[in-house]
Amino acid sequence: MRADGGDEPLFDLPGALTAQADDPDLECIVEEVPEREDDVALREVAQWFLRQDPEGERFASVLRESLDQVLDGPRTMRFRYADLRKTEKTHVGTIIEINLGKEFDLDDGDAMDYRVAGHEVDCKYSMFFGGWELPLESLGHLVLLTWADDDASRWSAGLWRVDPRHLGRGAGNRDRKKKMLKSGHGRVMWLWRDRELPENLLLHLPPAIVERIFAPKSGQQRINELFRSVQHRIIRRDVVLTVAQQKDGPRRARMARETKYLGGEGIIVLGHYEWDVAVARALGLPVPRSGEWVSARVAPAEDPRTSTFEAEGVLWRLAEPDEWVAAAPKVPRSRALGETD
Q1: 42 pLDDT exceeds 90?
Q2: First-to-last C-alpha distance (Å) of the chain
Q3: Where would I find the beta strands (DSSP E) of 34-153?
Q4: pTM assigned to the model
């Protein structure tokens, strides 16, 4: 039978699984699966996550950091999911599960990955929306479904109680996992749906620019080219480490604004320091947070009514694309700031 007219059939209960002594009684599981509106445990787990992370910012950061962790750009220069080995791709879900547990300080479950608000919850990730595969032991349990697409810079996360009527029939894969059917998508309680994933910058730059950034042999020269070629956009610490291929990558980013490097070309590089943040706001640039930078070419301003900042007794503004500029002002030392809004 089918739930939504799709191509994939549902389980034929009760004999859909390979007959084994330890197979669950599917009919009993189906009887115990409440409707989403009546599922008190699902609602309590959802409310718990939304109290911890109303806008999903922490969740999105975990997904971004987990993907970066597997890519391991600082050691490998990789920034494309396609460059991962098959075994590494299968490891992404485990990394996300571990990092989510750490971020939200979740207790281990007895049968599932976590215990949230007193309820057992499993965690599953797929890079393809709807591609979740569920093990037999998760039948009837709550599962936290996560999806992140680096190419599209989008992500989602929701809760579902695993119902065998909405899993593919047959023996499943080698681990006897069953793929969730489209009929189950509408039964998911989405916590955050189709949200923006922090950008994998190098993945989305034109190939010619990426090639130009990585061309120099020197780590400092590559960092200089990064901030020269990518202006008015936030550049995260992981990108700097991937490009620099040196442990002191952040120091290279700070050095890039010196007069002997980009400062001599009129380019300022702003980090998460008091003066830097004030300048970014004054110029209407993205404001860097801890571990982020943004660069821009500037020129002396004649009209104080434009978006300007003052340095060395001179007003400065963003330079026009083809405008000739003199050396940028020296960035003064200022205190580092904590996280901003």
Answers
A1: yes
A2: 51
A3: 107-108, 114-116, 119-126, 133-134, 142-149
A4: 0.83
Cβ–Cβ < 8 Å for 191, 44? no
Beta bridge partners of 315: 310
The boundaries of the domain holding residue 49 are: 26-196
Give me the pLDDT at residue 24, please.
47
Q: What is the mean pLDDT of residues 154-181?
A: 83
Q: Which residues have a Cβ under 8 Å from the Cβ of 55 and sit 6 or more positions away?
A: none
Secondary structure of 220-256 in HEC code, one letter for each residue: HHHHHHHHHHCCCCCEEHHHHHHHHCCCCHHHHHHHC
Q: How many domains does the chain have?
A: 2
Asked if residue 340 is part of any domain, the answer here is no
Q: Are strands 119-126 and 107-108 parallel, antiparallel or unpaired?
A: unpaired
Cis link prior to 300 (omega < 30° from 0)? Answer: no
Assess whether 150 and 190 both reside in one domain.
Answer: yes
Question: How far is residue 57's CA from residue 61's CA, in Å, rounded to a whole number?
Answer: 6
Residue 12 has pLDDT above 50, yes or no: no
